[in-house]
Amino acid sequence: MVDKILIVDDKDINREMLxxxxxxxxxxxxxxxxxxxxxxxxxxxxxxxxxxxxxxxxEVDGYEVLEIMNRRGYLEKLPVLxxxxxxxxxxxxxxxxxxxxxxxRKPFDNAKVRxxxxxxxxxxxxxxxxxxxxxxxxxxxxxxxxxxxxxxxxLQKSNEQIIxxxxxxxxxxxxxxxxxIQRVKEFTRILAYQMKDDYAEYNLSDEKIQLIxxxxxxxxxxxxxxxxxxxxxxxxxxxxxFDIMKSHTTRGCQILEDIEDAWDENYAAASYEIxxxxxxxxxxxxxxxxxxxxEIPISAxxxxxxxxxxxxxxxxxxxxxxxxxxxxxxxxxxxxxVFSPKLLxxxxxxxxxxxxxxxxxKNKKSADIA
Amino acid sequence: MTLKxxxxxxxxxxxxVLQRMAGKEALVQRFALKFLKDTSYSDxxxxxxxxxYENAFRASHTLKGVASNLGFVKIVxxxxxxxEQLRGGSKPENDNDFTELSxxxxxxxxxxxxxxx
Lengths: 370, 117
Prior knowledge:
The structure holds two protein chains of two kinds. Chain A is an alpha/beta fold.
């Protein structure tokens, strides 16, 4: 297809002279002033290859045409070549600043006009093609990105489903802790956000906290493997029985290791940490590994308090429920495990939030019984 | 009278215009004769009579451009000088430039008319 070009000049002799040079190679359109030029550009924007523009014209002059083209974004795709008699030196600079691609002074040489027009047309054809290609590539990337995003969401969902399934198994196996898991998750969330605010050194991002909260549901997954006569025993456990009971941490880890390949490694790692270490003590006298201080992963430390607190304020086969005040004091005084001072400080700050949650659960339970 | 003789009598730049138009004498002649119908000069004269110096500036500027493409050196020189006087819509200090331009223009038109015959 022949490229269309537009010649804008108020003098027909000037338009004819340019046309005579260019009509062999292009389909030439003409405008006798700026207003007509803009109308033609609007209608033929997609097909035009270059505009040859005179500056001094009645009505709308060349500068105004440039300004309008600039404002409407035409200059991005459609080059303008100014042809002027203007001898003042600042005019050329002014034109280039206004976005003009080339500037030719009169008297012009036919060969020069033809070559410069050809160069600009080719340059812009190349530039526009390139931009179109970049746009296509960007669109492709955007689609691929969306797809990845969807897959990531699906994966996330499947990770959480695995946790839910395992959590449900734990619940159905261990009758008394049906809602325990849900509450531990909530206590964990509250405490984790307080730790995030108070102690930047643990690098607790929102994503990390979400992971810890989800994974906290599996802290007792190993109880699946503990025999009923020990797990559900109403009285005090013997030393041997207690040793078996303690093995729920490491047995849980075996289960998690077995399904390691089935889910996201971040979920696997967080669940493993919590499952293994939620009975460690800050003074190193916990189990199974006797880790000490911040050797204990922060996830396990947080879940540990959440777990103990809920156990204290709930009724269990082997014990009655403590009041919330008693529970708080027992944890802070070290009667029920030894925790990091930082964690205890944060725990103190969220005390009322813990109690609100515990109350809500208690009320719910009364309502259920009624 | 040939086109070349016409240009020589006018003191115009025949070689230059021929070169710019890729050696096509017919093209030069076509546009040179077209100059007879160009209204820039009469526009300029009317604007000056009306003391409309903005339009006079534009007409003078345009005339300079057309003449320069056609190699009419004398018109270009006097139109250039007049254009600079009129720039910004100001009134020329005296009539000298326009008088000179008129003389050059009339001479050119007379010669081109003779060529056209």
